[in-house]
Amino acid sequence: MIADPARFITEQTRLSPVAFVPEIRLHQADEATALWHLTEATLGEADLPPPFWAFAWAGGQGLARYVLDHPETVRGKRVLDFASGSGLVAIAAAMAGAAHVEAVDIDPFAVAAISLNAAANGVVVAACRADRIGEDLAGVDVLLAGDVFYDRGFAAALLPWLQQVAARGATVIAGDPDRAYAPVAHRRDLARYDVPVHPALEDAIVKNVRVLQVGNSELFQSALPGWPGFA
Fold first, then answer.
1. Which pTM does this prediction carry?
2. Helix (H), strand (E), coil (C) string for the chain
3. Topology at the third CATH level for domain 57-214
4. Banded pLDDT at 52 (limits 50, 70, 90)
């Protein structure tokens, strides 16, 4: 059992600038598989989730870039970074002047990484181990989500909730490198970036990332028969 996740993270990663968002430094690993296996061996558990917290994923980099370049998106607002991973997007929101930033993830190592990374960048982010899918999020003005459309089942549960949050009046913005289950309807593209990525993580060294606003049926037209909202 790892009694001190923060110490484990600092020992297994190095603090370095993010390729596409060099204003921000994160504790990043050099190699995914070895860290994944080390985490499983140290904890004595198999089938742990990959160490998403140890890398700056393409969608998160694109979304963080957008937030920093368009600070009015979050300035003075209450922001939730969903499935935060390393905390990259949350940190960008805090740097851009958000009134309050909460970053949630279901991985306890991610929660520790978010706190470490926020401190390294001199910002305050409330890191919490939570899911939040299905919640009303009445106190949230802006929901940000990077790289969340990678799994069909997860995306099928996620998108209706994102649409509900948007219908309630929050701004919902995602960063996505053309994952298989990104929404093709109920969306408005805000920006595109060519983002350099770690070659061990992707099938290319550069990914085209779309920053998209997610809406609902009243804002954007759907649909694909039989599988509305997804490719």
1. 0.88
2. CCCCHHHHHHHHCEEEECCCCCCCEEEECCCHHHHHHHHHHHHCCCCCCCCHHHCCCHHHHHHHHHHHHCHHHCCCCEEEEECCCCCHHHHHHHHCCCCEEEEEECCHHHHHHHHHHHHHCCCCCEEEECCCCCCCCCCCCEEEEECCCCCHHHHHHHHHHHHHHHHCCCEEEEEECCCCCCECCCEEEEEEEEEECCCCCCCCCEEEEEEEEECCCCCCCCCCCCCCCEC
3. Rossmann fold (3.40.50)
4. confident
